[in-house]
Design brief:
The protein has helices at residues 8-17, 46-53, 55-67, 92-97, 116-122, 137-140, 142-155, 159-202, and strands at 75-78, 84-88, 104-107, 112-113. It is of the alpha+beta class and 215 residues long. The protein has one domain (40-203). Strand 3 and strand 4 (112-113) form a beta hairpin. Helix 2 (46-53) crosses helix 3 (55-67) and helix 7 packs antiparallel against helix 8. The chain is globular, with a radius of gyration of 24 Å. The termini are far apart.
């Protein structure tokens, strides 16, 4: 496959010379009808049937594609908001047909993507029978694509592009760490509170040595 040559510097020059507009976050559309998964196999899409016939094989294929995004000609640039990246496919005309002239919008913290594969799941075309989202190749391969794109910037002497991309990714890692820390702290706090309540009940003057009331 012939890879599309990427003019990385022009991305940032364009952003600096135009007014900054809010990033279009992808929101699920409510169609007013239930997911097609409740109507049986006959109503499933081709993607749904392929996934449910061989889930492990489908996921293996998805991960393989995610690992080779850079080799397929994909590149990534930071968005205008924290946690947001644009993944540019090798076929930019295809991206424009899907309403993404700047590439697919990938939110690395919320773990969402504006590509058709992920968008259809948000609109009700669930792949997993339990209703869990299956991450697209852009989400799965984002970190590796960022590292390889940054290395390409550095090798080409595009240091502004390199540092901006790396800084955006560091912010994502910091946010993920903060979320994990807060979740762990909340869980520890709940356990500590449970322990204090248990000790208070056990030491109550209305309870015996066995911790049960003998009133």
């Amino acid at each position: 496959m012939q890879q599309t040559e990427v003019n990385s510097v022009s991305w940032y020059e364009t952003e600096q010379t135009t007014s900054i507009t809010p990033v279009r976050e992808y929101e699920p559309e409510s169609s007013g009808s239930e997911s097609n998964s409740v109507f049986g196999v006959a109503s499933l899409s081709a993607v749904q049937r392929a996934y449910r016939q061989e889930p492990s094989q489908y996921l293996a294929m998805l991960h393989a594609r995610a690992e080779s995004l850079f080799e397929q000609g994909y590149r990534v640039r930071p968005g205008r908001m924290p946690g947001v990246f644009y993944v540019l496919p090798e076929d930019t005309k295809r991206a424009k047909r899907n309403g993404s002239p700047e590439g697919y919008l990938v939110h690395a913290v919320r773990l969402t993507c504006s590509c058709p594969f992920f968008a259809k799941q948000e609109q009700g075309e669930v792949l997993d029978e339990e209703g869990s989202y299956v991450h697209c190749k852009h989400l799965l391969g984002l970190e590796k694509l960022i590292k390889l794109t940054a290395a390409e910037h550095k090798a080409n002497g595009e240091m502004y592009c390199y540092y901006r991309l790396i800084a955006q990714w560091w912010d994502v890692l910091a946010e993920r760490h903060r979320s994990v820390t807060e979740t762990s702290g909340l869980a520890a706090g709940n356990l500590s509170l449970t322990g204090r309540i248990a000790c208070t009940v056990a030491s109550s003057p209305h309870n015996g040595k066995d911790g049960h009331s003998h009133g």
